[in-house]
Every structure is written in C-alpha cells, then in structure tokens.
Amino acid sequence: MYAATLVGPGRFEVSEQERVRAGAGEVVLRVEGCGVCGSNLGPWEGMEGVSYPLDAGAPGHEVYGVVEEVGEGVVGVAPGDAVTALSYRGFAEYDVARSDAIVKVPASLAGRPILGEPVACAVNVRRRAAVQEGDTVVVVGVGFLGALLLRLVRAERPGRLVAVSRRKDALEVAERMGADEVLTYDEDVVGKVESWTGGRLADVVIEATGMQGPLDLAAALTRVRGRLVIAGYHQDGPRRVNLQLWNWRGIDVINAHERDAALYMDAMLEGVALVAAGELELESLVTHRFPLSEINRAFELARERPSGFFKAVVHPGGDQ
Q1: Which domain holds residue 86?
Q2: Which pLDDT tens digits describe the chain residue by residue (320 residues)?
Q3: Which of 103, 194, 262, 309 gets the most CB atoms within 10 Å of its CB?
Q4: What are phi and psi of 57, to 5 degrees?
Q5: How many structural domains comprise the chain?
Q6: Do 88 and 26 share a structural domain?
C-alpha cells in the first residue's frame, strides 16, 4: 500500500509500505478519505516533543472508507461495509482499527465524506455544553468544528445563537447553520452581546479556535455563573487566563475534550445517525480534496485557512 510518512516539520513523504493486516478483534479498512484536523498541524509544523519520523499514515484520524478485512472474533461488520472509525494512521491506502472503534455507515451515505471522529467531537461538546432552551449561546470561531456546533446547538432551541469569526465568508456559513447573529472580531462583540441580553451576557460561550485571543474574548462574553466551554485544541503551549474575571463571575469552565473511548464511540454513533437523518450536514464543509501525493499542500492550506476553506480531505486516489 502507499502511505504518507511525516519525516520532519512540514514534510510528508509518500512511499510504498507493507499493507496492514487485521489481527484478532481488528478491522482493516480501505481508506476513501481522511480529514486534516487542526490538531495535526502541531506535529506537521514541528511542535516540541514530536519525534520524527511518525508511523506511516499518522497522525491521520478522521477516517472513512470500506471494510477490506476482518480479524478473528470480529462480528457486526463484514468486507464491503461502509464505515468510519476511530483510528490513527489514515493518511494511507489502508488503515486498521479495533472492531469496537468502527461505526457502520448507512448505505445511503456510502462513498460520502463521513468524518466520524470530528462529528463525535462536536457531539461531545454539545453534550458537555448542556445548552438549555432559551439560553443565549455564543460560538467563538466558525471553522469546521464551530459550524457543526452551531447546527447542533440550534437544535437545543436557544433563545439567541451568536457566531463570531474573523472571516466574513465563514459568517455566511454560520447563518446557514442556524446563527441568529454573526459578528467579526473587529466589532464590539462584548458590547453587542450586552445589548442583546440587557447587560447579562451569554449563558454559554463555546470557544472553538484553540487560540489565546478568542479564549480571552470567550471569557469576557460569559455571564456570572455562566459556562465557558473550551472546544478548541490548544496545542501551542501554555495559556494565560484572567482568573480574577473567572473567580469574580463564578464561571464554570468546561474542558469539552473527551478521552474515554466508549463515550467517543457513543458520540460517533449519534453523529452518524444525525447525518443520516439530514440533521447534520458535512459535505458542503469539505471544501478541499487532495490526493495522497499532495498531502503537504493539504496541510499548507489547512494552516493558511484562505477564504472559503473549512476542511481538507486527503484521499488515496491519483498518482502517488
């Protein structure tokens, strides 16, 4: 099989590797696509503590494809089934996952970019945010995750749903995903939320960027005894927080990242069901697709985030 190996900062090399095989309790899937996650950028850019080369196919974990082979003891999935998975070497023609980390995709979704792992992340954030009907909710950051969260939170019937982004084109997507109000960072975001809430500020604020400035803004938008939900992946070092503000307002700070595999898979099941039911839409957010041979360009674009960009997917098709 062909696989991409991250051999150093900013440099994947695609080469022929021995094809992965299914051990007991494992499933091999023929990869149809693997999304580039924001958390992949740290290793690609050369964050501290990463040792090169990474395993072939790593750190690709937003995988979907078709079951190619099942190992001993595997039940519930068979060769030919469309699936998404929680696996970690998806920048390759084939990947392997434990059978309990596989979610079957309905036949109606076969061949479509069902990125189960980030959908599971969004479902977990929605659960941890615990939005109540009538709440004022602000989502800070409208990338792929932020857009999914807007659609999921809209279903909770908030009183007002506000989206904040640096990109005006992203705000158009935010409106499509259900935002009542859209703002850029250049505006008086705190002042406007104060005016809409009679000075009370937001009941729930979800920070979905993984960056210092938006985290500061998210805290400033959170009311007394409100919930500040950290959904962004902060991978570039320590953060400074205004703990005096957090103390004074009695804010509940929720780290919405999930590491329990069973809860992750439960959220993936729910997310795939929402996509199948038409309640969560992914395809318009997959804005860029690259063959494996152009994986470095996919990562460059994910770092640059130009106008119109939401998600890049790498697929094994094309000349390697």
Answers
A1: 2-115+286-315
A2: 999 999 999 999 999 999 999 999 999 999 999 999 999 999 999 988 899 999 999 999 999 999 999 999 999 999 999 999 999 999 999 999 999 999 999 999 988 999 999 999 999 999 999 999 999 999 999 999 999 999 999 999 999 999 999 998 899 999 999 999 999 999 999 999 999 999 999 999 999 999 999 999 999 999 999 999 999 999 988 999 999 999 999 999 999 999 898 999 999 999 999 999 999 999 999 999 999 999 999 999 999 999 999 999 999 975 44
A3: 103
A4: 90, -20
A5: 2
A6: yes
Q: Is the pTM above the cut of 0.70?
A: yes
Residue 181 within a domain: yes
Three-class SS state of 192: helix
DSSP state, residue 180 = S
Q: How far is CA 269 from CA 28, 177, 273, in A?
A: 19, 21, 6
Query: Per the domain annotation, does 270 fall within a domain?
Result: no
Alpha carbons 122 and 52: distance in angstroms, whole number: 30
